[in-house]
Amino acid sequence: MLRGWSDRDEVIALANATHYGLAATVWTRSLSVALDSTSRLEAGYVQVNQNLTIQPNVSYGGFGRSGQGKEASLEAMVEHFTRSKTIVLNFD
Question: What distance in Å separates the CA atoms of residue 20 and residue 22, rounded to the nearest whole number?
Answer without folding.
Answer: 6
